[in-house]
Design brief:
The protein is an alpha+beta fold and 242 residues long. The protein has a 5-stranded antiparallel sheet with strand order 3-2-1-4-5.
Length: 242
Amino acid sequence: MHDDDTETAHEDDAGPGPDLTEEPQAESEADSPPDIEEALDMLPEGSKLRGEVVDVASVSGSAVPAEFPSESQTADALALTIDIEQTAGEATTYFARSDTDSRLGRLLDLRSLDQAADLEDNQLLLTVENDYAVPVVPSEERRGDGRAYAGIIVGLLPSLLIFLGGLFQAGGALFSRAFVAVWLVATFLVLPVSLYFDAWNLRTTTDWQGRPLLWAALSVIPAVNVMAVSAYLVVRQSTEPL
């Protein structure tokens, strides 16, 4: 009996055990993701993001922050709320409603939309500027035709066959009169025209900022065109649609 009383006394002297309920809460607060402003501030200038437009609203021009990078300080502005995938948060970006700012018009033309409200539920490519998420908009109206890609492949094929024939010392078998005629049409007509139209489509629908005329000119130089067009096709696959 005496031993049991002694153990009970020791337990009473020790007092209540430590309260561990607050530690997980503190850890949870420390591990919580940063808000959207902090997340954008931590990203390098020019970083590319992708997000979905969840709301489109007209606002007063005074609601646009003075440091917002685009020319949106007009009497009326358009505010787009965008759910950004990489930051798990929503950011607001702005467009001017003035007719002098064609950024909004070019974006609507790119998406084949009639009005700004139709941008809701659209995915947009964004870039970080001055710690804001700004939609990447083509600098020109949409030009070219993506269907010209097939013409690039067809136009390059004869030159590619000659290139491979030279590597394997089998080029002599290719030089019939009919093949030469096909090569001339493909190299000096089909390939440059197709590449020119495809490059313009790429420039006005993706983040690629290459020069269509330069690439078209490289495509008509024998031997050089195989390497140049191959490089163009690799770059084409790495572009981000707007």
